Amino acid sequence: MSTVTLPEVETRPEGTDSTGNDEPKMFHYVRKDKVAESAVMGNMVVALCGEKFPVTRSPKPGSPVCPECKKIYDALPPGGGA
């Protein structure tokens, strides 16, 4: 009989760091009307960069922003629209 050492497997929930902190690594731009719906209903939202996730946190001033979302947001015409 022989034994094998398995590689270390990441078992923390997605979005947490090694200290167990569940703060997202960065925040994404999402349609405003979808944020509240996701927070209440648990629906998935799609960020400008294409990332899909349920809204669970609100960004604080100075929070890191997804560079791809920011690039897309900055290229949008002013006025918000639908």
Automatic annotation (TrEMBL):
<protein>
    <submittedName>
        <fullName>DUF3039 domain-containing protein</fullName>
    </submittedName>
</protein>
<feature type="region of interest" description="Disordered">
    <location>
        <begin position="1"/>
        <end position="24"/>
    </location>
</feature>
<dbReference type="InterPro" id="IPR021400">
    <property type="entry name" value="DUF3039"/>
</dbReference>
<dbReference type="Pfam" id="PF11238">
    <property type="entry name" value="DUF3039"/>
</dbReference>
